Amino acid sequence: MKALITGATSGFGYASALKLAELGYDVVLTGRRATRLAHAENEIKSRYAVDVRTLCFDIRDGQACKQAWNSLPPDWRQVDVLLNNAGLAACADPFDKADTEDFECMIDTNLKGLIYMSKLVVEEMKQCRNGLIINLSSIAGVEVYPNGNVYCATKHAVNAITKGMRMDLLPYGIKVSSISPGAAETEFSLVRYKGDEAKAKAVYAGLEPLVAEDIADTVAFIVTRPAHVMIHDILLTPARQASSMLFNRN
Length: 250
Ligand code: NDP
Ligand code: 8X3
Known about the structure:
The chain has 250 residues and is an alpha/beta fold. It has a single domain, classed as NAD(P)-binding Rossmann-like Domain (Rossmann fold), CATH 3.40.50.720. The chain is built from eight helices and seven strands; from the N terminus they run βαβαβαβαβαβαααβ. A seven-stranded parallel beta sheet has the order 3-2-1-4-5-6-7, sandwiched between helices. α2 links the parallel β2 (26-31) and β3 (52-56). α1 (11-22) packs across α8 (212-223) and α4 (100-128) runs parallel beside α5. Bound molecules: NADPH dihydro-nicotinamide-adenine-dinucleotide phosphate and 2-hydroxyethylsulfonic acid. 2-hydroxyethylsulfonic acid binds next to loops.
């Protein structure tokens, strides 16, 4: 069994890579930070008897995606699971004040990157008439919130792509799922607030947020369903979160 995890250098991707390795999957890890990829590879190999490959590239670059994918030996391109996880919120600014570059970055990463990788992997999965794709969506794909604008739009679009892929890939026996988490403490908010640790911390104040392992457990649940079961979406939030904006902070 093989799984490819995009954005495996941090957060959900890293935790899911460890979890999939624990389940016996050989894993392909992707991300831009080579040192983090090497660390993840070492960590997994030291804990589990599985094989690991790393691919260091920027998922916004379609050519780089293709090159990285083609650099894998043919048997490594037959992945059973694709976890489309790489993504970010590049800002939390009102639509009129935000930088257009930040909007482009989110569209290029969260949407185009997911599409580039899926197109490559799906071609192989079609040959095997088997496969599972899990897309990382968000509660932001269900409800828009102030200053969420384009980030929410990308996650709404991820939901549309997930549904479309599920329909179009049905004849090939490829299952397509999504996970829609609420507030989870990873590097996500640090990235969103451009390294401002105080602002990032404040997102989770008075709240016991989700942690990356909660999402990794959800990935494990999806991949371990029997062959006849397809999960469409799992939405999970911290116990103190009822909607994208409603929190019961202590
Ligand atoms: P992290 O910031 O901890 O991890 C993001 C990962 O995406 C990193 O491994 C990063 O790798 C990778 N990535 C980002 N941009 C690129 C790029 N241009 N090319 C390649 N890889 C890239 O965040 P999370 O783990 O929290 O987020 C993972 C996914 O979950 C995202 O899609 C996010 O939108 C979604 N999500 C997050 C929630 C949260 O509250 N944390 C809630 C709901 C959904 P590197 O920097 O090395 O390239
Ligand atoms: C990340 C969760 O609520 O900040 O997707 O959009 S939220």
